[in-house]
Amino acid sequence: MRYKLTFVVGLALGYVLGTRAGRERYEQLKKSARQVAQNPAVRNTAESAAQQGRQFAGKAYHSVTEKVGDRVPDSVTQRVRNLRERNTNGTASDDWGTSNT
């Protein structure tokens, strides 16, 4: 599905950049793209895909942790646990100066 979407976006971009129709056709395509992006069905689908991605990432994290966890140095393991606890408690940044934005 991702490759199809990438192809369609590339096709549209190529058409816009390569067309001789001018500004009027560009504005028409821009308006159509905005309407599609604001469509509730499209927004719901995008949100459900994001939710599934988060679930799969969580499962992958747990499986990697189980397989690699005993091979990681204790200092790194403790650091990850501390960061996970802080993020769960709602802290926006960690000791490294990064933030959850």
Briefly say what this structure is.
By secondary structure, the protein is mainly α. Helices cover 76% and strands 0% of the residues.
Q: What would your notes on this structure say?
A:
The protein is mainly α. 76% of the residues lie in helices and 0% in strands. It has four helices and no strands. The protein has helices spanning 2-18, 23-38, 40-68, 74-88. The radius of gyration is 22 Å and the shape is elongated. The model has no long low-confidence stretch (mean pLDDT 78).
Keywords for this entry:
101 residues, mainly alpha, 76% helix, elongated
Uncertain segments are none
Give the helix tally: 4
Average pLDDT across residues? 78
- Tell me the strand percentage band: under 5%
- Terminal CA distance reads 27 Å
Q: How helix-rich are the residues, as a percent range? A: over 70%
Q: List how many beta strands DSSP finds.
A: 0
The structural class is mainly alpha
- Biggest sheet architecture: none
Write the layout of secondary structure elements.
Blueprint: H1 2-18, H2 23-38, H3 40-68, H4 74-88
